[in-house]
Specification:
With 314 residues, the chain is mainly α. Among the domains are: 69 residues, Alpha Horseshoe (Serine Threonine Protein Phosphatase 5, Tetratricopeptide repeat), CATH 1.25.40; 109 residues, Alpha Horseshoe (Serine Threonine Protein Phosphatase 5, Tetratricopeptide repeat), CATH 1.25.40. It contains 14 helices and no strands. Helix 6 runs antiparallel to helix 7, helix 11 packs antiparallel against helix 12 and helix 12 packs antiparallel against helix 13. The termini are far apart.
């Protein structure tokens, strides 16, 4: 029996060392702050310095430490907002939006609440995708930007939000045009009419309306609804007399011999008009896979009314 004792002791020693090795490996993951209480001002100042040096991975934990150690101080409110800004600056929009929602929930009446709503809207805005893809972020950006304008109509944030709303509406109209052209080229004329009508009725202030009206003229001519094509062309000419799209519609009706109400189209004239259009290389929006609105404003951080990190009010 005594001969086996050293072997058992050796096995136990090896087991202990193995457990220590596993524990050491487990501690090699994400670095965490040891809890050492520090003044809020010092933690916040260090975090701001890292933020200004674009060391976001260091700034964010420090802002969180301010919240953890001094949850009821004005510095905690500042840190919560600046943590969201740090996430935004490193393009981590989901985390930025989550932090902003937390700030809005806890401090809805704070003087920095307008900024929180604005930064949330911009976080959606910068995720807008090209017109060939899903427009969920565009719709969320519209809702968030509208919220800024509704809640704080006289602020600098609302003024910038209105400008970006115009761009997002133009982008959504571009999506409708993208799909409408697809339906038109595929011969699905009723579906195309619905898309072009959406642009004319719901996005009246966008740059896509003249083309949408011309496409309606073109589609109605294809299906033989000449009277409706003539009416839309007349409205297009009245509202956009100098537009190239009105000139295209005018030429289409002229070549078909239906410039006057009640005129009958000439035989095979639609085919001829289409061929002439191709020969003349009439401009169409060719960049169908290119967004009308750039998904990310490269100068958003410089031109947007974002206050300096060290000048946030209490």
């Amino acid at each position: 029996m005594s001969g086996h004792y050293p072997m058992k002791m050796t096995s136990r020693i090896v087991l202990v060392f193995m457990l220590m090795a596993v524990a050491a490996c487990g501690s090699g993951g994400k670095k965490k702050f040891a809890y050492v209480e520090r003044p809020a001002e010092g933690l916040y100042a260090e975090a701001v310095e890292d933020l200004e040096r674009k060391r976001y991975d260091r700034a964010i934990p420090l802002f969180e430490e301010v919240e953890r150690q001094h949850p009821y101080s004005p510095w905690a409110r500042r840190a919560m907002l600046m943590k969201a800004f740090a996430y935004y600056r490193q393009n981590d929009y989901d985390e930025a939006i989550a932090a902003l929602d937390q700030f809005i929930s806890l401090h809805p009446g704070n003087k920095d609440a307008p900024y929180a709503y604005y930064l949330k809207a911009i976080s959606f805005y910068e995720q807008i995708r090209d017109v060939g893809r899903d427009q969920d972020f565009t719709n969320k950006a519209v809702a968030a930007l509208t919220d800024v304008v509704r809640r704080y109509p006289s602020t600098e944030y609302a003024r910038d939000a209105r400008l970006k709303l115009d761009l997002t509406f133009d982008h959504l109209a571009g999506k409708e045009m993208y799909v409408g052209r697809f339906y038109l080229n595929a011969g699905k004329y009723i579906a195309a009419v619905n898309r072009f009508n959406t642009v004319v009725e719901q996005y009246q202030t966008t740059s896509h309306v003249p083309e949408a009206m011309h496409r309606l003229v073109e589609t109605y001519m294809q299906i033989g609804v000449i009277e409706e094509a003539w009416k839309i062309a007349a409205v297009l000419g009245y509202n956009y007399p100098g537009s190239e799209w009105y000139q295209y519609s005018y030429n289409l009706l002229d070549n078909a011999g239906v410039l006057e109400p009640g005129s009958a189209p000439k035989p095979s004239v639609l085919r001829k008009a289409k061929d002439e259009e191709k020969e003349q290389k009439i401009r169409r929006p060719v960049d169908l896979d290119t967004p009308q609105l750039s998904p990310v404003d490269s100068d958003i951080g410089n031109n947007s009314p974002i206050p300096p990190a060290n000048q946030l009010p209490d």
